[in-house]
Amino acid sequence: MKHDAYFTSPYKYIGIVEKSYMSKSEGTLTIDPETGEAYSLTKLSSNKTVMHDELIYTKLFQDSVHSLCGLGNSSLRIMLYVAATARPLAEIIVLNAPDVMIFCNISKSSFYDGIIELLDKKVLCRKLGSSIEFWFDPNIMFNGNRVKASDNYYKNK
Length: 157
Hints:
Elements: E1 16-22, E2 27-31, E3 38-42, E4 47-53, E5 59-60, H1 65-69, H2 73-85, E6 92-94, H3 97-104, H4 108-120, E7 124-126, E8 133-136, E9 141-142, H5 146-156
Antiparallel strand pairs: 1-4, 2-3, 5-9, 6-8, 7-8
């Protein structure tokens, strides 16, 4: 089988756009000492343009890759589902069996076997009071800023 080779990467970045921001203008009140008239001085606002990645992503931490490599086929597929559906700043994932089975193209028994393996390996743990909600380890993967999430975690403790 023949595959093409490239000197430079053929992949294009999708979803990178420029976003413009305008800072708020600041105003000060000044009084003319000779006439006593009041003037408002306004500093002109400055514009800032930054590059922004619009695609949704989930971070996979390099230290966790080794533990994920040991997962079975069904467990790994379920983890890909978790990564694809994790909400920003959330540590809970909803694993509704029919949805996951369709997404991952696995059977009902493979789904439950995969969940058991993920629970045994402490990649997931059950959320009290729910049969379909699970906590996932934010040290394995996370969607968003873990500093913000940990601040909320410690404030609520």
